[in-house]
């Protein structure tokens, strides 16, 4: 799965839990916050930045 997010959007998005920057994992189709250890899904090109929808990462 390949997901594209505009660079300008990626620069302003932050994790709703930690307020840390997010990085795009194109292969997984997720926005990842290394600080909080959460990965947020991208559905139909739209980031779902809800903590309840995020998955824990190691």
UniProtKB/TrEMBL annotation:
A single cellular component GO annotation: cytosol
One matching Pfam family: Trm112p
Family: Belongs to the UPF0434 family.
PANTHER family reported for this sequence: PROTEIN PREY, MITOCHONDRIAL, ZGC:162634
Record-given protein name: UPF0434 protein TM51_12890
Species of origin: Thermobifida fusca TM51
